[in-house]
Design brief:
CATH class of the largest domain: Mainly Beta
Strand content: 35-45%
Strand order of the largest sheet: 17-19-20-21-22-23-24-25-18
Helix content: 10-25%
Number of helices: 9
CATH topology of the largest domain: Lipocalin
Number of domains: 3
Shape: globular
CATH architecture of the largest domain: Beta Barrel
Structural class: alpha+beta
Number of strands: 25
Distance between the termini: 79 Å
Radius of gyration: 30 Å
Largest sheet: 9 strands, antiparallel
């Protein structure tokens, strides 16, 4: 039996070796087939008379929308819901279809697509070196009659194109998308740090992270218990869509729409869930103060004999670096050091203007403050003690403005924004604040 089996296997191997090794599996060469696939994608992209609606989900989870109009000359016109400019001004750039490891769509000149992927965080509010974890080169995954699916080649972001209607294109052209994007202007137009959505006689404090397209609601429920709800959001024409609706008893908030700015009242008018009139306005104090935040912030660095860092100083009345501390030559940062030193029996804190030499942090000059007062309603009050170092005459105004604001008798609320950062907000009117990082 073993001998028969061996003969059978040998016969099979002989037959296999006699088969033609150059018989093609396909009738056409790989290059020909690949060029046909690229031609199919080109015909589809350029063949949509009203262009394509695009949804781009970045690797960090944020959702952005585009409208693309491709042609046969490797040009693409686009809108994007990144901000009111990109949502209202159509931008033209170039694109290529190219065979890489698989067919790919490349946006090969700087465009609205590149804004999300730009590694410069000042461009898009993302992380330095990473941006918003998006892409501008995409592998073409699938082609259907009215849709195309793509995957970013570097960060793996996901994009899907769907054929647009004439009405879809008009929604960009007539400003519907731009109006919705006004929602992200609330931080610029409402000068107070704290902002309230007032609807149906109920107030909700809102905090917006536009870079992550994330919004946090804080309120007290019917029993007076503090509640908080954080959700991502996206835009859809004239609507701001909450990915996870807010539920407060019998109240549900899922969309905000028809935003309009009232300069007279410094507030936004808005519809909740399409019909219910509401407003968004500034507030001078947090709805639910973190009573322990000031002590927690101060004690953290006091225990470690270290310091908090602010690279831009105070934001005041809508102006970043309002006192222009970045104009000081060689400035590294404004730092706050609890228990920096002692003088006349007083152990003082120091708000210091610093420079860096090698690995050493050097004091340029600074304002000393007596031990802070922590109030029962969640504020910290600093009390000016004196000046440390010599302040150059050309920088006196920057120093005096910073020290005077820190010396405010109303003090500051502390808002912890992450494990490593706090915002310190003026309790006078909440129109001035400083971000401290560790």
């Amino acid at each position: 039996m073993k001998r028969v089996l061996l003969y059978t296997m040998a016969a099979f191997l002989v037959l296999a070796s006699c088969s033609k090794k150059d018989d093609p599996v396909f009738d056409e060469s790989p290059d020909v087939r690949l060029n046909k696939v690229l031609a199919e994608y080109q015909a589809a992209l350029a063949g949509a008379p009203n262009g394509w609606n695009a949804e781009l989900r970045t690797a960090n989870g944020s959702l952005y929308h585009f409208h693309f109009g491709f042609n046969d000359a490797n040009r693409v016109q686009m809108y994007a819901d990144f901000d009111t400019l990109t949502a209202s001004v159509r931008k033209e750039s170039s694109f290529r279809l190219k065979a890489l490891q698989q067919p790919a769509l490349l946006f090969d000149t700087y465009s609205y697509v590149h804004i999300l992927a730009d590694p410069d965080a000042t461009v898009n509010g993302g992380e330095f070196g990473l941006g918003l974890s998006s892409d501008f080169e995409f592998s073409l995954d699938t082609l259907a009659a009215d849709s195309i699916k793509l995957t970013g080649r570097f960060n793996g972001s996901k994009m899907i194109l769907r054929k647009a209607s004439a009405q879809d294109l008009q929604a960009w052209q007539n400003g519907q998308w731009k109006n919705a994007l006004l929602f992200e202007s609330i931080s610029a137009l409402i000068l107070n740090y704290f902002k309230r959505l007032n609807v149906g006689g109920k107030a909700y404090e809102i905090s917006l992270n536009a870079a992550r397209r994330e919004i946090t609601f804080t309120w007290r429920d019917g029993g007076g218990i503090p509640r908080q709800h954080t959700t991502t959001y996206s835009f859809s024409g004239n609507n701001v869509q909450l990915d996870t609706p807010l539920t407060d008893g019998g109240t549900t908030i899922s969309t905000l729409s028809n935003l309009s700015w009232n300069a007279g009242t410094s507030s936004f008018q808005v519809n909740v869930n399409g019909t219910q009139a509401a407003s968004i306005a500034g507030a001078i104090a947090p709805m639910i103060p973190d009573l322990n935040a000031p002590t927690r912030w101060w004690q953290y660095m006091a225990d470690r004999e270290y310091f908090w860092t602010s690279f831009f100083g105070f934001h005041v009345n809508g102006v970043d670096d309002a006192f222009k501390i970045r104009s000081i030559p060689g400035l590294y940062a404004l730092v706050f050091v609890p228990r920096f030193g002692s003088e006349q029996g007083v152990i003082y804190d120091l708000a210091a203007f610093t420079s860096v030499s090698g690995s050493n942090l050097n004091l340029l000059f600074g304002a000393a403050f007596r031990p802070p007062v922590f109030t029962t309603d969640g504020r910290v009050i600093f009390r000016y003690f004196g000046t440390l170092g010599d302040v150059p005459p050309e920088h006196e105004e920057k120093y005096i403005n910073t020290a005077s604001l820190l010396n405010s008798t109303s003090g500051f609320y502390l808002v912890q924004t992450s494990e490593t950062s706090y915002d310190m907000v003026s309790a006078t009117d909440a129109k001035a604040w400083i971000t401290w990082l560790r």
